[in-house]
Amino acid sequence: MTYKVTEEGNIATVFLDGEIDMDVTEKAKEVILPLVNSGKEVHLNLKDVAYMDSSGISVLIESHQMALEKNTKVVVKEVSKSVLKVIMMAKLEQILNLG
Amino acid sequence: MNLSESKDFLVSSASLKEVRTFSRETFEKVNLNQELKDELVLAIAEAAQNIVKHGYKGVQETSDRMEIKISLNEDELKIGFYDKGKPVVPGNVQHRKLDDIKPGGLGTFFIKQIMDEAVFKKDQQGWVNHLVLTKKI
Fold first, then answer.
1. Which of A63, A90, B106, B125 has the fewest CB atoms within 10 Å of its CB?
2. pTM higher than 0.90
3. CA trace torsion A17, A46, B96, B124 (10° rounding)
4. Which domains does chain A have, with CATH numbers?
5. The complex's ipTM?
């Protein structure tokens, strides 16, 4: 997994690239959670993520829940069909902010 | 169609990508729609992840290997997982409730959603655990 972060005003966009599994979740959290913790609105762009398993879903949940605590939000954007299917399987499409 | 492919992997989160590659290459040999193939790869990866995450919980590094066997006999798909981790107590393998939104606990749920059956067999054949996932396809 690789990533790129851009920031504009109070919005930080994290572009993730690759497959998100247990092996890379710590790396993903190290990138995403400090941004959320700082109170920024974080956009996770998943257009280049073709595969995500339950570990990746956990990162989305943890980010979302931290954002609620910090009175900000995480928006999950440009979700691929295969990743959306996993999100829906977990019945999270109404919980996460899908933009 | 009949098919049987097996491969062993180092028990490590770094092996999960290799597990998916093996699964994808195996399913390329079978006439299934892509959506189902993706689901099956996810189920296999989740079961392998469970071995790494739970079977070897607290183990920083191991040289142990796990074996995955994918067999198709006509319309019955069987996927066997063999490992030498902590013995699994089948009754303790539960996923979290979906409305209890929190990180973790979804892997087993995904497996149950995708597969028809997930059973720990007693015929470990020299291994500690032998999980078999089945699905009519």
1. B125
2. yes
3. -40
4. 2-98 (3.30.750.24)
5. 0.93
